[in-house]
Structures are given as structure tokens and as C-alpha cells.
Fold this sequence. Notes:
binds 6-O-phosphono-beta-D-fructofuranose; alpha/beta; 12 helices; seven-stranded mixed sheet
Amino acid sequence: MTKYIGILTSGGDSPGLNAAIRGVGKAALNHYGMHIIGFRDGFRGLMENRTMRLDSGELSGILTRGGTILGTSRDKPHRMPVGGKVRDMTDVIVGNYRDNHLDALVCLGGGGTQKNALRLKEKGLNVITLPKTIDNDVAMTDITFGFDTALGIATEAIDRLHSTAHSHHRIIVVEIMGHRAGWLALGAGVAGGADVILIPEIPYDVESVAEAIRERSRGGKPFSIVAVAEGAISMQDFLAQTAAQEKKGKSRDGRKNIDDDAPPTEIQYADHTLRLAKKLEQLTGLEARITILGHLQRGGTPSAMDRLLATRLGTACADFISKGTYGVMVAARGDGIKAVRLEDVAGKVKTVPPDHPWVESARRVGTSMGD
Ligand code: F6P
């Protein structure tokens, strides 16, 4: 029996999404003889039944394209703004799945998407997901597609900032995305040779950061690059937030305003970065500048590694569908691929262990982690 599968991309876009759509689509069409239908703009498009034909023509020529040909949104089935109100549209989504005679729905997304997919699974839909995000913070997979491209972009930015920081004897604080995880800042910081790397998992002491910079100045290097993850937090703020949350009876850790359904705004992050740069200027006597890489890290052509990963995961996804394996995320594990239960992924975040080998390596080359 011919299978009908739907596919959508949800959450922030990331390089490699089109490569994954192509991987799922080409394998489904050509190898397994399935029919595939795209839904536009994530769960919103599924709710509004806005579809896109995905035949060989549409799937051709997209491997190297950034973004997603399907469009995306951060809308969630159970909390969707409709007609000026936030409504639970899950039943409408389930209805559209049935009306399109789907045998399976493929959801390409990050942590939030895994949770939404699990909710749909619990409503009886055959859901299967792929892990995408530049943040690399999805649990149960070694890596997510989008991360490698963003890592390259952020590393190149640090490389370029080095020469100008050096010429002007300045501190440059470069803010790197990652939501509440430090993978991107840590990876780019190590690869780009940042002098200080600040990540959410290791709350920092601004005095210790300043001392690392002063030490460099005393050693004849009166310039420094500080790679700061957007979710980085000082020990002082961390303790204050932990205390405030304990007072409210919440057991969460002390990181600021970090609800995975609603990422803090860029302005909140930028405010922290600006305050950090000003404080470092004051404590070191060096001039400081900030650079916010922002959405540059999500745009453009995916790297070869991301194309490869997205193609591997996408084609494996079609294979799992052909075997009737649903309710899982297709994860990268070592050289292989594994289907992991959505229950084991949803609601979890893969953060950087403070003793991770990348952290150890950073410390060994003399990089300050700010603690
Ligand atoms: O999750 C990917 C990501 O780029 C995060 O690193 C960042 O915090 C967030 O999305 C930004 O979201 P938006 O594009 O909605 O501003």
C-alpha cells in the first residue's frame, strides 16, 4: 500500500533544513514509492491546511539552499494565536492529518518541536522527527544539523575580530547564539582562539574575566576576544535568580528567563552583553566593543557536514517510515543512526557538561572560562 507522508519545519530555521527535506522526500518518493506533501510554516500551516506540492521538481536544486522552502514558525498546536486569542488547535491539526489521509507526519525541529510532536503522538498520530538547531541542544543525539554551519560562521567572525581588536588594543565581546546552551560559543571560542569563553553552564565572575584580560595586557597583549554565549550568566545573577526561584517554590536552576517555549528576546541578551563590555572596560582600562552575530549564524548555505548529516537523517527517516517505526526522533549516534523514543527526548535539554573535553581543552590552552 502506498504511504502518504506529511512534512513540516518548525521553530527557528537552520542551515540544512532543505537538505533534510530533500533527503526525506527523495528517499520516500524514489526509493519507497511514497507520496509526500509539505505543510507551510510549521504547525500553523498544518492547522490551516496550507500545503505545498513536493515532487521531484520541488525537491531538486535545494540541497545547498539556506532556510526552509516550507517556511517555519514557532507556533505550537496547543497554544496558537488565532483570531486575537491563544487557542488549543490540536484537534484541528489531528483533523487535517486525517483529511489528508496521512500515514505519518515528519517534523523537523529543535527541542520545542520534539515536545509538540510528542503531544501529537499522544493524540494518536504517527509522528517522526529530525533534530535541527544551530544550538546543538537536543537530547539523545550526538549532534543536530545546522550546528556545524553556525560553528563555521561564528569561528570566522572571531578570526576576523582578532585583527581589529589587536590593531586598536581593544576588548571585543562577541555574542554568540545558543539559547540556554553554550555549545556554539564554546566550539567557536575554542576553534577561533577566543581569550575568554562564557557559557550558561559555567556562571562567570566578572572580576576573574577582567583579571584574565589584565594578565594578557601585562604579558604584552593589550587586546582580548571574549566569546559570550547569549545565555551566559554571572555567578552573582545566577545566585540571585536561584534564590528568587526557590522563594517562589520552583526547583529550576537559576538561569535567567529561560523557558524553552519562549526564548528571551535578542534585546535582553544584547543588554547583558553591553553591560558586560562596559564593566570590563571599567575594570581593565581597555576600550571595549561588542559584536552581536545574531541571525547571521542561521543564514546561508549549509556546510558539507550539515548537508551530509541532514541527508543521512532524512533518508533514514524515510526508511523508518517504510518499516512503520513512529513516535521517534531519528538521532545521530556515532557513525550510525538510531530511532529514540520521543518520550526520551521531549522536555530535555542537552547542555554542556562543565567538565566536557571541549572545556578541558579550552582551559589547557589558557582560555579563561570566567570562573
Ligand atoms: O534556537 C535557535 C536560536 O537561533 C537560538 O540560538 C536563539 O536564542 C533563538 O533561536 C532566536 O530566535 P528568533 O529567531 O525567534 O529570534
